[in-house]
Design goal:
Blueprint (H helix, E strand, L loop, with lengths): L7 E4 L12 H9 L2 E4 L2 H11 L5 E3 L5 H11 L2 E5 L11 H10 L3 E4 L6 H8 L6 E6 L4 H13 L3 E6 L4 H12 L4 E6 L7 E6 H7 L8 E5 L14 H12 L4 H10 L4 H12 L13
Parallel strand pairs: 1-4, 1-5, 2-3, 2-4, 6-7
Antiparallel strand pairs: 7-10, 8-9, 8-10
Helix pairs in contact: 3-4, 6-7, 7-8, 9-10, 9-11, 10-11
Function: Catalyzes the 2'-O-methylation of the ribose of cytidine 1402 (C1402) in 16S rRNA.
GO molecular function: rRNA (cytosine-2'-O-)-methyltransferase activity
Catalytic activity: cytidine(1402) in 16S rRNA + S-adenosyl-L-methionine = 2'-O-methylcytidine(1402) in 16S rRNA + S-adenosyl-L-homocysteine + H(+)
């Protein structure tokens, strides 16, 4: 008597826009799978109907995967998984499903295919030699500030996803920590009819998209200059940024941290942050440990 079949999970990329980007191999896997798991049965169901594929469709999203995945793999050992768009495993539970299949003694594969951040990186015109993919930034709070600060200091190109209604705020934050002169790009609606890539300084991009934008968005940010190229004295740009943050009501400590993240030396950042928040008080060197 044989036991249950070991699971085999295939992560199948789906188009980020143009349906012509779906590969022949992806279609074949969807046709031969026992079932197709997905984040949104309505969206993935429409794709399967377009392809003329009739397979059981199982919802396995971030909220349901842990409860449903073991039973799904037992019922449908040869399982294909698709996300809403692009290659599964990034910003969706595809990687967790793959890990579960392996832990059960099964096998897994990931098909090459559509993704948004690689085309956006190349379209940006910025360095592709080294880069970091950030995914989505935290929406608020300390974790967001820390991620932005780390991004500002990073010397390789950074890439992140953003939603249309948060784009303006994120570009404003990036301008604040990286400086207005740092270059970047915004790509939206990749591979769709209204695909657009805007390139420029972060200050320029913040103005262009001050009212937000439509569509799915990828932001690419130039890496920080080498330490030897960074200013050791507060430039006009640093003064302008510090005054802007003071007008926004930020504290001296917050301004100092933002200036350091933007590349200013700690002592200079300390003095400048005090100057803009307490203009009538003399400033000096930062206290020990500041």
């Amino acid at each position: 008597m044989t036991g249950p079949a070991l699971p085999h999970v295939t992560l199948v990329p789906t188009p980020v826009g143009n349906l012509g980007d779906l590969t022949l191999r992806a279609i074949e896997v969807l046709k031969t799978a026992d079932a197709v798991a997905c984040e949104d049965t309505r969206r993935s169901g429409a794709l399967l109907r377009y392809l003329g594929i009739h397979k059981p469709l199982v919802r396995l999203d971030a909220h349901t995967l842990r409860d449903r995945a073991p039973g799904t793999l037992e019922k449908y050992p040869r399982l294909a998984y698709v996300s809403d768009a692009g290659t599964p495993g990034i910003s969706d539970p595809g990687a967790e499903l793959l890990t579960l299949a392996l832990s059960l003694g099964g096998t897994a594969e990931v098909l090459p295919g559509a993704t948004a951040f690689v085309p956006a990186l190349v379209l940006s015109g910025l360095s592709t030699a080294r880069f970091t993919f950030e995914g989505f930034l935290p929406r608020s709070g300390r974790e967001r500030r820390e991620r932005l600060s780390a991004l500002a200091r990073r010397q390789e190109t950074s890439i992140l996803y953003e939603s249309p209604h948060r784009l303006a705020a994120t570009l404003g934050d990036l301008t604040g920590v990286c400086g207005e002169a740092r270059r970047g790009s915004v790509t939206r609606e990749l591979s769709k009819l209204h695909e657009e890539t805007r390139r420029g300084t972060l200050g320029e991009l913040a103005q262009v998209f001050s009212s937000g934008a439509r569509g799915e968005i990828v932001v690419v940010i130039e890496g920080a200059p080498e330490p030897s190229q960074q200013s050791n004295t507060p430039s006009a740009d640093f003064h302008a940024l510090a005054r802007q943050w003071a007008r926004e009501g930020k504290s001296s400590r917050d301004i100092r941290q933002l200036l350091v993240a933007a590349g200013l030396r700690k002592n200079d950042a300390y003095a400048l942050s005090l100057a803009v928040t307490n203009p009538d008080e003399p400033t000096g060197a930062a206290p020990s440990g500041a």
